[in-house]
């Protein structure tokens, strides 16, 4: 309770002295010089990076493809054949092939259908069923690549890690030097006596 009262007094003093500042600005940067992926599970990131090295278009499962009549250009061929391909992959099937770090983002895809709990992609740009089916697989591959790039940061190179450690060490030394300077200034006030 006492710390809450002192926090409110501190906030009131900041607002009184600096009305444009938020009272929580002093607490916003409590963790300094932290790497971007410091809060992420490093084991899951390593698993995702290893998985991505072997991920290619052939890794995509076939899915369940249905065909229907296409719309748009194509002349008489469009009216007579069913070349529009709609391919559906159940989420449970895709979760088995993806690393854990990408599981959460799969349901946020623009191709996700909540009613079926599946990814559903349509293609009708080509005049053949096989080409449209391959186009669907390519779209899913591109979507998973996009999901990977958004969820998994690149591995940090050793030089950057070394520079980060040097910055952190310099910041700690600077902080300690400032504390020592402030302490010596207070000590000189206490023991110095009167100048008159």
UniProtKB/TrEMBL annotation:
Coiled coil: none
Superkingdom of origin organism: Eukaryota
Any one Pfam family match given in the protein's UniProt record, by short name: RF-1
UniProt GO BP: mitochondrial translational termination
InterPro entries named among the record's database cross-references: Mito_Release_Factor_mL62, Pep_chain_release_fac_I, Pep_chain_release_fac_I_sf
Region called Disordered, residue ranges: 62-82, 167-196
UniProt cross-references to Gene3D superfamilies, sorted A to Z: 3.30.160.20
Biased composition (Polar residues): 62-71
Start and end residues of each Prokaryotic-type class I peptide chain release factors domain: 66-188
PANTHER family linked: LARGE RIBOSOMAL SUBUNIT PROTEIN ML62 (PTHR11075:SF54), PEPTIDE CHAIN RELEASE FACTOR (PTHR11075)
Name the UniProt record assigns to this protein: Prokaryotic-type class I peptide chain release factors domain-containing protein
């Amino acid at each position: 309770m006492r710390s809450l009262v002192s926090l409110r007094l501190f906030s009131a003093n900041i607002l009184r002295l600096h009305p444009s500042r938020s009272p929580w600005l002093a607490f916003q940067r409590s963790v300094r010089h932290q790497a971007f992926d410091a809060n992420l599970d490093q084991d899951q990131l390593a698993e995702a990076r290893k998985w991505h090295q072997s991920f290619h278009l052939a890794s995509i499962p076939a899915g369940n493809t249905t065909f229907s009549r296409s719309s748009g250009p194509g002349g008489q061929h469009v009216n007579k054949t069913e070349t529009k391909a709609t391919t559906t992959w159940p989420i449970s099937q895709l979760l088995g092939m993806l690393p854990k770090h990408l599981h959460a983002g799969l349901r946020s895809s623009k191709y996700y259908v909540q009613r079926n709990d599946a990814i559903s992609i349509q293609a009708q740009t080509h005049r053949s069923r096989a080409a449209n089916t391959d186009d669907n697989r390519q779209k899913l591959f591109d979507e998973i690549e996009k999901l990977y790039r958004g969820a998994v940061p690149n591995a940090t190179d050793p030089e950057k890690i070394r520079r980060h450690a040097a910055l952190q060490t310099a910041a700690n030394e600077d902080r300690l030097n400032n504390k020592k300077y402030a302490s010596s200034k207070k000590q000189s006030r206490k023991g110095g006596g009167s100048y008159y």
